[in-house]
## 1
Amino acid sequence: MAESVSHAAVHELYDAYERRDFERVAAQIHDDINWVIYAPVSVFPFAGPRRGRKDVMEVMARIAESYALLRYKREIVIVEDDRAAVMSDVSFKQRATERMLRFRIANFLRFQDGRIIEFREFINSFDVAEQVLGHELRT
Amino acid sequence: MTVSRQRTSAVPADAAPLPARAVIEDIQDAFRHGDYARIAARYDDDVDWLFYGPPTIFPEIGHRRGKIAVFQAFEALNTKYRFDRHVTEWLIADGDCGASIADVTLVQRASGRTIRCRIASFFRVRDGRVVEYRGFVDSFNAAEQVLGRELPV
């Protein structure tokens, strides 16, 4: 049977991310994490697959470099056994342009030995790309 | 595909409400079998349904309120796309909520293009029926697959 993760542990992880406590977040990430953000690398260079804690922490650092987190409101938190799914209403400010971005974000997490071993992130990437670029995409 | 306001007989009126996991599993199994009557029986008449994506490329999705409107969206999607494959990769449930990731392959009927994407779904269930749905896809990538070319940025 899979080990279980608690609601409290998931909230603690997101609380740490929200207050930009990356040391605390890093402690919750497995050395061998399998990580994917599904979004175009042409707009979000930090998107795509990553393997291992070092690469994942680099991703978080790159996101923080380009975008200031203004809000990360968890709307749905689902926890079962070793897995969690979190849907949040988030706002960021693009530092270079001061553009405000607002979108919903969906995370899926699997834990092993008390740390995240698998992570998948989904956004409405077409809409968020338009917000980042400041113009509609030509289709 | 026609959906009436009458509840279908797939779920007996006196049946105990299923938990969220069972409801989602039933919907996904029915989807794989193209059994839309069974799916309809698992959606609340007043469901709040939202699949995030660009209306310019996917006018069929977006926000829909009520089972009739949701099934009109499904019908519009089925007119344009044929669903070839739906594999549930993740499914977790907790109380009245559940979430899943599915690996989906569909074919654009007009062009014959194959589109493969992962769809993330969040469900809220009450009395054995879905009352709220939120769907996510890497919509930039899905749009490129539908258009058959890269989007200029």
Note: Chain B touches chain A at residues 52-54, 56-57, 90, 92-94, 97-99, 101, 118, 120, 122, 124, 134, 136-143, 147, 151-153 (CB under 8 Å).
## 2
Amino acid sequence: MAGHNPWPNEGNTGHIWDEDIRELDNPPPLWWMLAFYAGFIMIIFYAIYYPTIPLANGFTKGIAGWTAIKEYEESYNELKAWRKQKFADKEEKLASLPLADIMKDTDLKLYAVATSKMLYGDNCAACHGAGGMGNPNFPVLADDDWLWGGHINQIHASIANGRVGNMPARGMMGNLSDEEIEQVTDYVMALSQGKGNDPAVAAGKAVYAKGMCLACHGPNGKPLAPNGAANLTDQIWRFVPFNDGTCKSMVEKTQRDAVLRTIKYGVNVKKNGDLIDCTREGAMPAWKGRLSDKDIKRLAIYVHELGGGQ
Amino acid sequence: MNAANPQYEYGLLKFGTILTVILLVAGTAIGTYAAAQLAWPFLNFDIAEITFGRLRVVHTNTIILGFGGLALFVTSLYSVQRTNSNRLWCVPCAWLSALFLIVSIVGGIIGIAFGLTQAREYHEMEWIFDLGVAIGWVLWTMVFVMTIATRDKEKVPHVYVSNWFYLALLIAVTYLFLVNGLSIPVTWYKSYSLYSGVQDAMIQWWWGHNAVGFFLTAGFLGMMYYFVPKQARRPVYSYRLSVVHFWALIFGYVWLGAHHLQYTAVPDWTGSLGAVISLAMIIPSWGGALNGMLTLSGAWDRLRTDYILRFLIMALAFYAMSTFEGPVMSSKTVNALSHYTDWTIGHVHSGALGWVAMVAIGSIYHMVMKMWNTEMYSMKLINVHFWLATLGTVLYIVAMWVSGIMQGLMWRAYDEYGVLAYTFAESVAAMHPYYVMRFMGGVLFVAGALVMLYNVAMTVATAKSRQPAVAAA
């Protein structure tokens, strides 16, 4: 096919492939060529301006004096300086005053709440939900039902030091039979509806005493003082049916199943260092060391002001 | 000569073409399901194998290596025969190559679903599958090179430009893939990379960007250079332009990797170098787009009637757009906003759906008609496919532009107290409508792919019973 050109007048190069593929002998468009050279010339200017070229020992620094970390630090310092100028007195008070005093200073309290949104959102919301609305098996923070107390100092202690729930399996002595567990479960369900004295659950009430449940949950299902034990006389459940596949011995379908599981397997019950199957996990990490003391105070105020602080 | 000329080997290519279309449907459907999971997370049903983290990787591998790789394989071996007027060198070698590639890639993808991964982006499959891909790849390279080398040099004295690009793909990916894949196997399905830390990141993105540069660009430009002039029946606009932009791209692409690592622990000069060469690549990239588009000068009216040409030209438009967008995103100022956001995902898809898939789709329609020597079962359905694919792509990338820029702005926004204004979770929640929109874009694209599969299947099934499109000439 070389030598034979069926399209002699279209300005092709004379090369023909696969019967009809050919190329014209056009030069690249002028604007394109100019832009092409400009692109490569730009590399030179860019390399003079920014650190770009590796050398045997290090690299060219560029006349702009730019480094990534410097760019970051400069803009961060600018923000810090602005914050300092505007809020230094408030930040100072937040750091030095005791919580009780901060709570009396409405202005300061509102400032602490306003600056805690990110802290809460990035550190707490994953478990306790946006705005403290809670998640299945993670306590609601926006109501007045507190496991460890709703006073500002108690909330602060919970955040700073963390909390680890603990409830023995099968009663305090670990000796409740399956039948007794069924009975005491019925009693706990009745308690939540205000029917703890119903004769139908008398047997369960006896087990409640025998298992020494009252030591933590109180004689009438309501803890005498905050100790981590749930109030059993309302319908706010610490643990709801939660089949995530980790509990192999039983399936929870109803709230009664969930209560029975908690009584039977306890909370954070360990054997030989490992959690036993189906035991509840209830632990809040300690934030001391992970967040600054000032930020922990800030968060305590934020949580207190979510609605349920006492 | 005509398409039925026994001179050319089509058996393997026919098989490969149909598999390519099936992989297009599978890969985009998996991607769309993964997109649905981002909008409605319950859709993973707590099954580890289909959770987003694995499904996304299954999707990228099915599309890039599976669909993209096979599309390159069949189009390269189709066009290398025709542009060299030479039958495929060692047909059994080509079959063996296909076997290695397909088995290893499919095996690797299934492995990924079951958690076997090297955790290197776009190079996830474990070493044993890697090795199979490498063997298949080298065999493919050998068949390709030898088909050119054994041509009748009297009859075909020059090597056509599409072959340069395919050669660049084959050679560059061989060493990129091998170097990035160097690892120490500890079991049949587990290996540890030779690299660690900053070196690891640099090598990984040297490969990662060239999976885009050589695999998804150079290879597909080869495809463009054969199928656009062939389908348009017009001469390529400028031979000189193809020479200049070819060498500029080949020189430039290998330097770009570090623009994926701006503002990280790698030395500052690497990011600058990656960014500035990226910017200098805009014009060379546009050289390819120009050369393809200007091939139509004097024949633009063809676009009204030739639906296959529509795919090819739309692909070039998306190519020009994404090769502008990419360098802009690699510059420091824009990267500081766009990095880690959905904008990156949008950019990748304007390339992958708009450019890679569309140019491959157009080429496949062309090849199906030639190899089975018939018109398509339905030309109208090609047009339906074109609009589904175009609208799907546009919907997808617009959703990701908006969500990506919004994400970037939300992450850096401060309130009146100088505290970050939005939590990360709030930025995730704000993405929801765009994730739904992206999913709908995906649905349209998959619907188009299904239309194509149906059309191709019907064409193949009825090829013999219908009149040949072109009389032997």
Note: Chain B has one domain: 11-465.
